C-alpha cells in the first residue's frame, strides 16, 4: 500500500544542512493502523508530510497505491492528494465555514457537483456523530468536535489513506479516547489505511496494528505492536512501553529486595490468552520455588491482552533455571533484572 | 445672534446652500466610490501577490515579492499633493483632461491602490498557515487557495480595510479640489476659507463627519457579523 524507500530529508539551515530523515525504509500494509512514535524533533512530522509531498524529500521514494509520489507535480500531484486524507493536531478548519461547509471544501476542490456534495455531507455527519452541528461554526465547537469535523473532511473524498499528525495531542484524555475509538471504527468499517504520528504510546497501544519507532531521523525499530511490545529492542522503545506499562522498581526498593541470598528478580511480559493461565501457581507447584509478585500490570493492546509482571523468584539455582525454561516454553518474554 | 437668525430666515441663503451642497455631495460620493472600487481592483491582486510569493507561502518567489514591494513603497512615500501634479500627463492620457471630478479619480486611485495592497497583505497574513496546509493536502490549486481560503478567511479584516480606505480617500478628495475635482472638501475650502463663509465650512464638515461615522459603523458591524471566531 505505502512503500517508503531510502527516504531522506535534509533541511538547509543557517547553521548548515540538517538531516531530519535519514534513509527511512517502511512498508505500511493496506488496512493497517500504522503508528509512528518518536520524541519531539525526531522527524515524525517531516516523515508524514513527505508522504503527501507537503515536504519535498531530498532523496528516496514514496509509493502510495503504486503511485510514485516523488515524481508527481502540478495537476497530477493535486489529483493524487485528493485521495489522501489528512488530519492535524490543531484541526486547521476554515473558520469562515460551517461544519457542513468544511466537509464540502475538499469536494469543491475535487469538482463534485452540488447535489452530490450535499448528499455526501449527510452521509458523513452521522459517521462522526455531528448530525446536529451541520450549521455550527468551528468556534462554537469543542476540540473533540473540531477533530471530528477534521475527520469527516478528510474522509469526504473516499481516500484510501488517512494521515494523522498528532491528531489527539491537543485533546484531553477522554476526548482522545473517543477520537481514537472513531478512527478505529473507520479503519474497520472502510478498511482504510491509517498512518498515525504521535509521541504518546497510549495512542499506539489503543489502536495501532503496527508501530515504528523513530529516533534522531532514523527508524530504530518496527513491527506488529504485539512483537514490539513483548520484545522491544531499542532503549527508546522500552521507555515508551514503560510509559504505558510501568514496571520499573525504584533502585532503592531493588536494593532492599536483592538482599535475599538465593533470589532473582525478573520481569515477564505476556500476551493474549497466556494472561488468563495460572502460570504462577504452576511455578510454585512444579518447581518448588517461592514467587513473590512485586509489580504487575495488564491492559489491552488494540484487541489482545498484554501484561507485565515483576517477580522475585526464590529457590536454588537449578530450580530457578528450570523456572526460566518453563516460562520460555509458555512463550513468555523473561528479563532478569537482578 | 440677530445676524444669524436673519441669515437663516433669508430664503436666498437656503437657495444658495441647496445649489452648492447636493452637487458637492454628489461629486464627493462619485469620487470616493469610483476611486475605492478601482483602488481595490488594482490593490487586491497586488496584496495577494505579495502574500503568496513570500517565503514559505504557496508560490514563493523572492523577486516578485521584492520588486512589487519596492514599487508599492515608492508610491506610498510620494505625498499626495505631489502625485496630483506629477500625474497630470498620465491623467490627460487616460481621461482626456487633467481637471474635473473624473480626472481627480486617477491620482486618488494611484495613491490608494498601494495602500490597499498593504492592507490586503496584512489581512491575508492573518490566515493561519495550518489552514493553507490543510487545503494543500486536499489537493487545492493556488487559485483555489486564494479564492476559497485566503480571501474568505480574511473577510473581516478585509472589510475593515475597505472602511479605512474609503475614509482615507474622503480626506484626500478635499485636496483633489486643487485639480478642480469639486466635492464637499472643496466647498469647505472655497467658501469657508477663501470667502469667510464659516457656516458653509461647518455644514460641509458636518456632512463629512456623518459620512465617515456611517462608513466606519457599517464596516465595524459587518466585520463583526462576518467574523465567526
Ligand atoms: N523547515 C525546516 N527547516 C529546518 N529544520 C526543520 C524544518 N522543519 C523541521 N525541521 C527540523 O527537523 C527536525 C524534525 O522536525 P519534525 O517537525 O519532523 O519533528 P517531530 O518529530 O514532528 O517533533 P514534534 O513532536 O515536536 O512535532 C527538528 O529538529 C526540526 O527542527
Ligand atoms: Mg510534529
Description:
The complex is a heterodimer of chains A (338) and B (229). The model of chain A has no long low-confidence stretch (mean pLDDT 91). Chain A contains twelve helices and 14 strands. Chain A is elongated, with a radius of gyration of 24 Å. Chain A is an alpha/beta fold. In chain A, the strands form three sheets. In chain A, strands 6-7-8-3-9-10 form a six-stranded mixed β-sheet, sandwiched between helices. Chain A has a four-stranded antiparallel β-sheet with strand order 2-1-4-5, with helices on one face. Chain A folds into two domains: 2-235, 3-Layer(aba) Sandwich (Rossmann fold), CATH 3.40.50.300; 245-336, Alpha-Beta Plaits, CATH 3.30.70.260. Helix content of chain A is 37%, strand content 30%. Chain A has helices spanning 44-51, 74-81, 99-109, 114-127, 143-155, 173-190, 201-207, 225-230, 235-244, 251-257, 279-287, 317-329; strands at residues 2-13, 16-28, 33-37, 59-64, 67-68, 84-88, 161-165, 193-198, 210-215, 218-224, 263-271, 290-301, 304-314, 333-336. In chain A, helix 3 (99-109) crosses helix 4 and helix 3 runs parallel beside helix 5. With 229 residues, chain B is an all-alpha fold. Chain B has one domain (2-226): MetI-like fold. Chain B is built from eleven helices and no strands. Chain B has helices at residues 2-9, 11-52, 62-77, 80-86, 88-95, 101-125, 129-137, 142-153, 155-176, 184-194, 198-226. In chain B, helix 3 (62-77) crosses helix 6, helix 9 runs parallel beside helix 10 and helix 10 (184-194) runs antiparallel to helix 11. Classes of the chains: A alpha/beta (338), B mainly alpha (229). Chains A and B meet through helix 2, strand 6 and helix 3 of A and helix 7 and helix 8 of B. The complex binds adenosine-5'-triphosphate and magnesium ion (MG). The site of magnesium ion has 3 residues of chain A, from helix 1.
